[in-house]
């Protein structure tokens, strides 16, 4: 029996929208589990009896049922809050329903002895930015001087130790907790990487509210987005210094800057692969800086980082095809 690909994400994930037709065209069936519609639009069963395990997931709107014994590969993409049949659950009911749903779902998925891109336990282990910096330094990357603290005195000492500007950036998300919130519930649009000016330093007492992340600003010649799919490395050279809007934070997509394919030096390529492998990640997206002196500086790793925008700007990368091929290869 041909194995299938299980994709765990949410209904707004364009990456999944585009990947499924590619898998189907290559002769591989895929089952999509949208967490923002789960368990509302699904039924599940996990049955242990006589030393055997039977488990399935059924998508109610389509009537399609997936026998988990048929799963050969899992693409674990993006999380989302669960949805329930009753939209008016009380606070305690919703907390309990969420905890029970998580236990039921992942108690099933974690039984799958198959290929994961990437396993949730590996993803969680790879998400901590402070640990990433330590690991990157140990593996030979240059990293910026960095400080994470809720002590205003530490920030003052850090600034005094730095020759040049200091930047602030969020550790979790630049959207300041607004991901998934309705427009009416969102009180701030977010903040990108920001140079800390004198006015901001005069408000340092606010750092005492929660830990903030500061780094030495590294002058850039250009930036690199390095996407790893299996053993394939796709390096995008980002000409972020060509526009003032992207000079500090290249994520401003309103700026029409050049993205082009480039080839990494062998040592850098192998270091990127080794970094992803060290977390047991078959997929990863690293952000690097190349300085005017051609030094390569590690910024961060994104275990489920977006890649579609890079493929749209550099179509020859064909990363969707490569990802589909990797999943199909593991289903064979």
TrEMBL record:
PANTHER family xrefs: BETA-CITRYLGLUTAMATE SYNTHASE B-RELATED, RIBOSOMAL PROTEIN S6 MODIFICATION PROTEIN
Coiled-coil positions: none
Domain ATP-grasp intervals: 133-332
Species assigned in the record: Massilia antarctica
Domain of life: Bacteria
Keywords for the protein's UniProt record, in alphabetical order: ATP-binding, Nucleotide-binding
Protein name: ATP-grasp domain-containing protein
């Amino acid at each position: 029996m041909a194995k299938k690909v299980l994709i765990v994400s949410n209904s707004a994930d364009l990456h999944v929208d585009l990947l499924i037709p590619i898998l189907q065209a290559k002769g591989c069936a895929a089952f999509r589990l949208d967490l923002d519609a789960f368990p509302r639009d699904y039924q599940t069963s996990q049955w242990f009896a006589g030393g055997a395990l039977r488990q399935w997931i059924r998508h109610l709107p389509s009537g399609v049922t997936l026998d988990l014994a048929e799963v050969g590969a899992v693409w674990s993409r993006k999380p989302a809050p669960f949805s329930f049949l009753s939209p008016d659950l009380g606070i305690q009911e919703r907390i309990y329903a969420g905890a029970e749903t998580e236990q039921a779902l992942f108690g099933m998925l974690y039984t799958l002895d198959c290929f994961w891109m990437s396993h949730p336990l590996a993803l969680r282990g790879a998400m901590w930015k402070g640990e990433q910096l330590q690991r990157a330094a140990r593996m030979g990357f240059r990293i910026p001087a960095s400080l994470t603290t809720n002590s205003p005195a530490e920030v003052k000492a850090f600034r005094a130790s730095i020759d040049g500007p200091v930047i602030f950036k969020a550790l979790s998300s630049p959207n300041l907790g607004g991901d998934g919130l309705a427009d009416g519930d969102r009180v701030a649009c977010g903040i990108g990487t920001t140079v800390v000016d004198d006015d901001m330093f005069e408000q340092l007492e606010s750092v005492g509210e929660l830990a903030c992340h500061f780094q030495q600003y590294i002058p850039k010649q250009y930036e690199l987005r390095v996407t790893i799919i299996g053993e394939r490395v796709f390096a995008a050279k980002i000409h972020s210094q060509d526009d003032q809007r992207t000079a500090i934070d290249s994520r401003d997509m309103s700026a029409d800057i050049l993205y082009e394919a480039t080839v990494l030096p062998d040592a850098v390529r192998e270091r990127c692969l080794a970094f992803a492998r060290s977390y047991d990640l078959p997929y990863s997206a690293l952000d690097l800086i190349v300085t005017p002196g051609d030094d390569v500086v590690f910024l961060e790793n994104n275990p489920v980082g977006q890649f579609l925008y890079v493929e749209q700007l550099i179509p020859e990368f064909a990363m969707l095809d490569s990802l589909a091929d990797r999943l199909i290869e593991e289903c064979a």
